Description:
Strand content: 25-35%
Radius of gyration: 19 Å
Strand order of the largest sheet: 4-7-6-5-8-9-11-10
Number of strands: 11
Low-confidence stretches: none
Largest sheet: 8 strands, mixed
Distance between the termini: 33 Å
Mean pLDDT: 91
Structural class: alpha/beta
Amino acid sequence: MDISTTAQCPVCEQNLGLTTQPRRSLSCPEGHRFDAAKQGYFNFLTGRGTNFLEDTGPMVLAREEFQNAGHYEPLAELLSESISGHHPEDSLDLLDAGAGTGYYLNEIIESLPGSKVDALALDISRYAMRRAAKVPHTLAMVWDVWRRLPSANNSRDVVLNCFAPHNPEEFHRVLRANGVCIVVTAAADHLQEVREPLDMLGIAENKESSLIEKFAAHSLLHQHSRQLKYPMELSTNDLFNLVFMGPAGHHLSPETLRAKTESLGAQSVNASFGVHTFVRKG
């Protein structure tokens, strides 16, 4: 697997290089070294930690099962289409901030056969990075995306930010001139049929306008937004995975949620997303 020289040490911010023997590790000229876990990802939060909760193993498993069932495949296809025109012809340097299992990243890379891809996947969940480390041409790092991103200035053609914290100041720093940041948010009517009966968290009002304002303050100019809405036919197990894989998984017990989904039964539920494209200027 090719590893980018634009990945940087979180301690001294110098570029990292890869060694493969005796075991795979990343090191910088100052001698800071990070060994890969046996699953292939690197944990940059060792010793420093984070104030945020990582998605647990069961939560990540629920997400993997839900995504592998194809329910969000239309979104993955739209993301691949959105990125196709925003990189050099035969290459793509991409950073996925809040990558989760790497599902969207993998779909994007598969849509670019023959291109040289260098992807950096970041997430605070070790369990998610175990999956993302299997995505081709991807360096998976456990990291808090609220902090300085471990990538060099002007090193990425695209930043992907799906249902994850926004750090527009850092997105601007790592993007090349005219690079794009693609942000996916849940629309106000996303999953509205089951939000209340399954105790899911609400969606803030005026989300798009506040997002545009926040990014404009860091010279990331709104290019366009695309709305994606479609029905999903979900079994009770799909509903369980859908709820448990998200923020609700941190405060709902699996037993309580399982009972709620069984009581509700199979449902037709609308997925509704906003896919927002911002361009780096200056």
